[in-house]
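Following up on my earlier thread - several people asked me to post the actual chain instead of describing it. Fair enough. Here it is, all 177 residues.
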Amino acid sequence: MTARSPDPESLFAEWLVEYGGIPRKLSRAYAFEAIDVEELHQEMLVQLWRSLPQFRGQSRVSTWIYRVCLNTALTGQRERRRREARVVPASDPSVDPVCPEADPAEAHERTERLTSLMEAVRTLPPTERSLIVLALDGLSHREIGEITGQTENHVGVALLRARRKLTAGMKGLVHEL
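Reply from S.P.:
Thanks for posting it. Predicted structure:
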């Protein structure tokens, strides 16, 4: 796909078809309530549209989209913290199973596991949360570094620490059940 298109609306629509999952996943990772997920998702799309003229094709489209969406999420989070004294995470009813199983019990169990994972991810500091979300999306350390502006080695070390915190957080969630 080319970086330039004669019609920005068509280019934006093409990118949403191909990369539309990125803002959806990130909005689920950074918002707690379903309505906030949708609001953040819409804000990410608005920021992508506003930023489209600044895309120069110096990185992959997906890298640029991750960068814009992460910046939008982190900015929104800083603003929300200023407004609220305390944020209490709630379960995420918008987390859907990645692939529906034939057995409804398996689908329900998978949904519960994904919800627990997202709750644990939301307890991490924003920078670690970003690393985990990008890693869960299958990006390499190099790609994560391009998105976050960190070196590949730093990403590896920081991701290891974040995974340890996430594992400890998941153990706490499991013990609550």
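The domain at 103-177 is CATH 1.10.10 (Arc Repressor Mutant, subunit A). That should answer part of your original question.
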